[in-house]
Design brief:
The protein is an alpha/beta fold and 281 residues long. It contains six helices and 16 strands. The two termini are 24 Å apart.
């Protein structure tokens, strides 16, 4: 079934009211009719609802049942990325929403080739939010990933204190640490991951990151191992909801990206070990 998001005040038990672009999607794109069922979420609760009436600017539904879903990560993951071209940013927003990220922060970095135009960015932000919403619907998430406004490098560094683990991807990092081991040592609730723009993170920016240390639990650390999130449909144990994957043997071609993924459960047991093909659009 199709999933839609609404504001909390759109749910007036036992009815739900959908307005805006989703009305067009329900009536003209999906060609739905009264009697069809959909999932509806207000980002805290989700329901199965039956369509009662479809109008041009209003779709009325009746709640059939409230669902008790565990579709979100048990911790918050924010992905920060050096500002890149619009097409790349849209691709990233789409993928990381489907993978379960909580927030996305575009950051102006020294090697960003994109020039910031505040007026244009305001229009683009509306499109980015729409992409995140559609990706959340497609992947049947309970919440929509929050796409933040573009921020400066200075403001980004200041915001790191809001997280209990800060990671950054840096190709020149020494190989003496393991993300897998780091995540095993402690349970984190609010994780920040920084990825550089096309040109990567500069040496000066790495030095800035290394200075981030507000207390023993908040620090910047090099991120060398890949991380992928799967939901319970991809795991073979009923209590296995979310896993961190160690990714290796990456091969990139024009058609696809192939890599080996080993998934470790909460007790460090290997849940999956397989080769994965990610086809390019």
């Amino acid at each position: 079934m199709q999933r839609y998001f609404v504001e909390k005040d759109a749910i007036k038990n036992p009815y739900i009211y959908i307005t805006g672009d989703d009305c067009h999607h329900i009536g003209l794109v999906m060609r739905m009719k009264p009697g069809d069922k959909v999932y509806v979420s207000d980002q805290e609760r989700s329901f199965v609802a039956n369509i009662i009436e479809i109008k041009k600017e209003l779709v009325t539904l009746e709640i059939v049942e409230e669902l008790h879903e565990e579709k979100e990560l048990p911790f918050s993951v924010t992905i920060a990325q050096g500002l890149v071209r619009r097409e790349k940013m849209e691709e990233v927003i789409d993928y990381i929403t489907e993978l379960g990220a909580s927030s996305y922060i575009p950051v102006v970095m020294s090697r960003s080739i994109v020039k910031v135009n505040l007026e244009q960015m305001e229009k683009k932000n509306a499109r980015y939010a729409k992409i995140a919403k559609e990706a959340a619907e497609q992947s049947h998430r309970l919440k929509i990933m929050d796409v933040k406004n573009v921020t400066t490098w200075k403001n980004f560094l200041s915001s790191a204190k809001d997280y209990d683990l800060c990671l950054y991807a840096y190709e020149a990092s020494p190989k003496d640490d393991s993300l897998k081991q780091l995540l095993r040592n402690k349970t984190y609730t609010n994780i920040l991951v920084l990825v550089g723009p096309e040109g990567g993170i500069s040496d000066k920016e790495v030095e800035d990151l290394k200075k981030i240390q507000y207390n023993a639990d908040i620090y910047a650390k090099d991120l060398k191992d890949g991380m992928r999130i799967l939901d319970e449909d991809d795991c073979d144990k009923p209590d296995a909801i979310w896993y961190v994957f160690e990714i290796s043997n990456v091969v990139v071609t024009k058609e696809k990206i192939t890599f080996r993924a080993v998934a470790y459960g909460r007790s460090n047991e290997i849940i999956h070990d397989f080769t994965y093909d990610l086809y390019r659009k």
